[in-house]
Amino acid sequence: MPRKADAERFMADAGSRGVTAALYQVTVNGRNYWRVHVPGFTTAAEAKAKSTLIKEQLGLKDVWVAKR
C-alpha cells in the first residue's frame, strides 16, 4: 500500500472485522510503502493455519506469511 492513509483505512476495517492489525513502513527502490500485518503468531505454522480465516474475514484474494 503506497499511501499511509489507505493503509490506515484498511487497518481500521480489519479491526472492525475482528482482525487486529498493525502498520509498518518499508522502502522499495527508493519509494516508501505502508504494509498492514497481523502480528502475534508464535510460529509460521500457526500463522499459516490462521491465514485462511483472515483472508475470508477481510475479503482478500491472497495473504502471505513472513517472518518480521
Outline, from the CA principal axes?
A: globular
Order of helices and strands: HEEH
Estimate the helix proportion, in percent.
40-55%
The poorly predicted ranges are none
| Helical run tally | 2
How would you describe the oligomerization state of the chains in this entry? single chain
Largest sheet: 2 strands, antiparallel
Rg is 12 Å
Helices and strands: which structural class?
A: alpha+beta
Arrangement of strands in the largest sheet: 1-2
The counted number of beta strands is: 2
Approximate strand percentage: 15-25%
Describe the protein's architecture and organization.
With 68 residues, the protein is an alpha+beta fold. Helix content is 41%, strand content 21%. The protein has helices spanning 4-16, 44-58; strands spanning 22-28, 31-37. The chain has a two-stranded antiparallel sheet. β1 (22-28) and β2 form a beta hairpin. The longest helix has 15 residues, at 44-58. The radius of gyration is 12 Å and the shape is globular. The mean pLDDT is 90.
Brief digest:
With 68 residues, the chain is of the alpha+beta class. It contains 2 helices and 2 strands.
Topology:
Blueprint lengths: L3 H13 L5 E7 L2 E7 L6 H15 L10
Antiparallel strand pairs: 1-2
Relevant terms:
two-stranded antiparallel sheet; single chain; alpha+beta; 68 residues
